[in-house]
Design brief:
Blueprint (H helix, E strand, L loop, with lengths): L2 E7 L7 H12 L4 E5 L21 H11 L3 E5 L9 H10 L12 E7 L7 H13 L3 E10 L2 H4 L9 H18 L6
Parallel strand pairs: 1-2, 1-3, 3-4, 4-5
Length: 187
């Protein structure tokens, strides 16, 4: 039985280093784990309870919820925008937090990693992402962390999957998340 890990990337830019990091996770997933890179976060309207109506949820949000419902775990990739979480990733978490207490994140393992240009690799944004995912009901795995600094220089000519150190770290993250996704979760 394969563990399905849904990857959500907080950057919409085609050449995003966080997207490349997610692509590395897809490529390097160990046997028994399938990392699925979700496409379509840009199409989801900002969360608004007035449009989150049973039977009439916007199609893009319903698609995200469906994909998340079929996931055993989540791997969130967060760059750092002005010292915090990107709006597109926060919006996805907001949609997945509903219905309150029974959203698609509830009780499922969530790990947050990422890369950023600065010297700390986006740790502030990643901490904020962990906080939001936990409040939304996810079982945030606090000891799975990977913040890669200097992304613009480090990945200027090398895809993260081709960087031996990063490839080993990403493989370790996915392997650890895979192991936790099979554990019973107390809610």
């Amino acid at each position: 039985m394969s563990v399905r890990i849904l990857a959500l990337v907080g950057s919409l830019r085609a050449g995003s280093h966080n997207r490349q990091l997610a692509e590395a996770a897809v490529k390097l997933a160990p046997e028994g784990a399938e990392v699925v890179l979700y496409e379509g976060l840009a199409d989801i309207p900002f969360y608004n309870e007035d449009i989150d109506v049973e039977g009439d949820v916007p199609a893009a949000a319903a698609k995200l919820r469906e994909a998340a419902g079929g996931a055993d775990a989540f791997l969130l990739f967060s760059p750092e925008y002005n010292g915090t979480i990107p709006a597109v990733l926060k919006n996805a978490i907001d949609w997945l937090s509903r219905p309150f207490g029974a959203g698609a994140l509830t009780g499922k393992p969530v790990a947050v990693i990422g890369t950023a240009y600065g010297q700390f690799g986006g740790v502030w944004a990643q901490d904020e992402t962990r906080k939001a995912a936990g409040i939304a009901g996810g079982k945030v795995i606090e000891d799975i962390k990977l913040s890669i600094p200097g992304s613009v220089v480090r990945f200027a000519e090398t895809h993260p999957a081709d960087d031996a150190e990063v490839a080993a770290q990403v493989t370790d993250v996915v392997t650890r998340l895979q192991g936790l996704a099979g554990e019973p979760v107390a809610v």
